[in-house]
Amino acid sequence: MKYLLNRKGIKWFKKILLDKYFRKEIKPLRKEPENKLIDYLGWHKQNEDYFFVGLPLLSGRLSGKKKSLIRDLVKENDLNLRLTPNQDILLCNIHNKNKSKIKKALKKIGYDNLNDINEIQRHALACPALPLCGLAMTEAERILPEVLTRIENLLTDMNIEKTILFRMTGCPNGCTRPYMAELALVGSGQNKYQLWLGGSKNLQRLAKPYLQRMELDDLERTIKPLLEFWKKSSAENDFGDFINNQKESFIKNLLSEIN
Question: At residue 257, does pLDDT exceed 70?
Fold first, then answer.
């Protein structure tokens, strides 16, 4: 489609569209309503007789005792299992009478307090990358826990209570939607990443690329000045909103001083 539009032009396309395919008025663009990212993690009422529970899975990985117990719960209680776009799972059709029993079982594998889910892990995503993907240039899923810990420690050290929506991929194909995140690392070489900033918590705004080949070891040194300015100026706003409200040249100059 993009090549057709480039070759023929929008005026031609509109004429063909209206003459042959769509014989109604094309109305002006409508602004997308403000949305909130809802993940359905934790316990929720499904209807009068049933509950469902959303279980967080970092990078969608389920193995060992956790996998065995959930499989047994699904089989024994005739539950429906749904996968979410955030790589989590929902256990559905939990009858009221079975809720207490299933809650106790989930407690054994670390799901005892689903009202207190680690915030930075909650919506963080990473693609499989190395060694599973032939397109990957560098790591993503295997080092995600370590990278999240580093970012979380930096936020804690700086007394910043808000969290950041983070995404990571091993190449620019963007399989975990990094280009909508507040902070994203996109693989561009061995242990090197593009730095994308300025997306939104509700995933309705695109981020922008600010660095092309940042060394992973330089992550804290690179983003710390940004976090300092965020804290000083408008820490009550989300990090992505703060970046988006600054001039692009200001952010680039700040990053160039560091790198």
Answer: no
